[in-house]
Specification:
alpha+beta, 5-stranded mixed β-sheet
Length: 248
């Protein structure tokens, strides 16, 4: 099967305590525009979304301890407005840079009063403190001896921010959202161990791909790439870079 021509996009979901969320400050609006992102006025709304509590409940990151708190859950339950921000379609080699930009927007929106944040493209949510931590780690990872640069450490932080793993599939512990950092998904056979074991292996392989390249990592580990996907090409979770299956 030929590689897909689909270019991934970030869909960022912000909740707020009033309709002021829908009119970001000039500084935040400038950051959004400067990075090539845009506010989606079609689906943003100055009223609560009754589906948000259930959606966030499914999306909370359960791998990192204390990734969200009771206060974060309460903020979701009590929200009064919803704002969606979209990235431009991303080229694979620019995906990490755009994901770092998405984290910067998340940070500025939280500082401006957003009360909850979710990455819709993979269905992952963190509490506000965790989002701020990830944004800080991303900025630190961009600093090298030669100035600012896109690094493997940045890719890791953006992956932890916007991708989800392990997702419980029929036969595999799966990742979703790795296309947001320019990587294929990684599916680990359930027979290899627990979901925690799978999460560690997924992170290990993804880290290697970020540092050494996809092809070199697959060759070293004798893994292959599949183009089959359960997601349609118009689904934000569709990964155009394929799936790596790690068998038993």
């Amino acid at each position: 099967m030929q590689p897909s021509s689909v270019k991934p996009r970030h869909v960022l979901c912000f909740l707020g305590k009033d309709e002021g969320l829908l009119q970001p400050s000039k500084a935040v609006a400038r950051t959004i525009a400067d990075f090539g992102f845009e506010i989606d006025r079609t689906y943003s709304q100055a009223q609560p979304d009754p589906h948000m509590e259930r959606s966030f409940a499914v999306c909370w990151d359960r791998v990192i301890p204390n990734a969200w708190s009771a206060a974060d859950e309460a903020a979701v339950a009590n929200h009064k407005a919803v704002l969606y921000v979209l990235s431009p379609p991303m080229e694979q080699h620019k995906a990490v840079a755009y994901s770092a930009a998405a984290l910067r927007i998340v940070e500025e929106m939280i500082e401006a009063g957003a009360t909850a944040v979710k990455g819709e493209s993979a269905g992952v949510a963190h509490g506000l403190k965790r989002w701020i931590q990830l944004a800080g780690e991303c900025k630190a990872a961009a600093t090298t001896n030669h100035g600012l640069a896109v690094t493997a450490a940045m890719s890791r932080t953006c992956r932890l921010a916007f991708a989800k793993r392990p997702v419980d599939g029929a036969a595999y512990h799966e990742s979703v959202g790795f296309h947001l950092v320019g990587l294929p998904e990684i599916y680990v056979a359930k027979s290899r161990g627990s979901d925690r074991d799978a999460a560690r292996l997924i992170d290990e392989i993804a880290g290697a791909m970020s540092e050494r390249g996809i092809d070199a990592t697959l060759a070293d580990r004798r893994l292959s790439l599949s183009r089959q996907s359960d997601y349609a090409e118009d689904d934000f979770k569709f990964n155009p870079y394929g799936i790596v299956h790690v068998e038993a």
